[in-house]
């Protein structure tokens, strides 16, 4: 499946969002502009701003305010990436050095703060209190999700329910905020707003579940990060939780010990264990289930190429290899 198909529907708007991002990144402090430009020019799928544009267009809304909202969402996402890489001590993202590896932790955190602050200035410029309410709530929930994940590092007793709470906060929330805020800005009905909010949540969960499968099945070059990163950090993701719960005594013990101590000493054995226990198939199937739930939410939108693009995007989110 070619992801370009669902970008094409909003190609002009997507290019305009890039221009807004470049304009809003300017700062009188050169290092701010340099780091901001470095991380935003790294590419990435930009799925969250894409969701804003597609959901707005599906509801018959387009224009400068929707493009500005898409840029705001990308700034919020980029700020979380800068902070995440510091917290996780990551050295690689999207196939190149992270900002913290290149400039150090302190500049990365502070430029992340700059991007958060800039996004709120842009929200004020947008002048929509419903959007402000959705996005300010989302940033708080994302921060809570990150802190919850931090408290579960090297905790082998983490349950599937807690894991789902973590990914709903740290990943799915910004997907949800993207689709929900676009609906609010477009003046959608209450039913449409709620359906698109749920669509974003389900899609975000599916996206993170696939990420957690790719941490074991993926290829470092394709992923643009190191395979096994989550394991190295001692994060109990669903493939590991499932293996500890459903695997053989030997598989469970191996994974439990790996989670508790972190590191990649037994990466190959653990990859074999999560594969053999059925954990990766279980997680991948759950991702497909959530993508199906997401697609079902789109029935509130008018039929047409934009709704079709949102369906394709949902299918791509679970079929991707990076």
Automatic annotation (TrEMBL):
Q: Which InterPro entries match?
A: Isoprenoid_synthase_dom_sf, Polyprenyl_synt, Polyprenyl_synt_CS
Pfam families reported in the protein's UniProt record: polyprenyl_synt
- SUPFAM superfamilies recorded: Terpenoid synthases (SSF48576)
Alphabetized PROSITE patterns for the sequence? POLYPRENYL_SYNTHASE_1 (PS00723), POLYPRENYL_SYNTHASE_2 (PS00444)
Taxonomic superkingdom = Bacteria
KW Phosphoprotein (keyword) present: no
Signal peptide range:
none
Q: Enumerate the UniProt keywords alphabetically.
A: Magnesium, Metal-binding, Transferase
For this protein, the record's PANTHER family field holds: ALL TRANS-POLYPRENYL-DIPHOSPHATE SYNTHASE PDSS1, GERANYLGERANYL PYROPHOSPHATE SYNTHASE
Family according to the record: Belongs to the FPP/GGPP synthase family.
Task: Spell out the protein name for this chain.
Answer: Octaprenyl-diphosphate synthase
Specify the taxonomic lineage: Bacteria, Pseudomonadati, Pseudomonadota, Gammaproteobacteria, Pseudomonadales
